[in-house]
Write a structure and sequence with these properties.
Layout (H helix, E strand, L loop, with lengths): L2 H39 L3 H61 L8
Helix pairs in contact: 1-2
């Protein structure tokens, strides 16, 4: 996998993560406003408490989804880091191997006796 394709994949993954996060934030605002409207219209404290509990349950689910997405994204970033390190180490090994071959092919100078 080339460095550019890894960057594109990382960008696309980050874009998807942020888009999903923003969607959940928008949903939180919309459901929060709807819950507040229902609570303010309710005359029964038990109904108001139930509306609030329902909204909080949805909020908890959104937070858990955020955490799950962040975990998955973190795993992908670690995988990219591993691939990058493997590529770098492989390149360094190849360079060292070529340098050793070149050094072996150069005749050694002998000290004058």
């Amino acid at each position: 996998m080339s460095q550019q394709s890894m960057q594109v994949e990382l960008f696309e993954g980050t874009n998807a993560l942020i888009t999903a996060w923003m969607k959940r934030r928008q949903e939180a605002v919309e459901t929060g406003l709807a819950a507040l409207q229902k609570i303010s219209a309710s005359q029964d404290p038990a109904v108001a408490a139930r509306i609030c509990a329902d909204w909080m349950g949805g909020s908890l689910n959104r937070v858990l989804a955020d955490m799950s997405d962040a975990r998955d994204h973190g795993v992908r970033m670690v995988e990219f880091g591993q691939k990058t390190m493997q590529t770098m180490l492989s390149a360094q090994t190849e360079i060292a191997s070529e340098a050793a071959k070149s050094a072996a092919s150069v005749p050694m100078l002998r000290a004058a006796a």
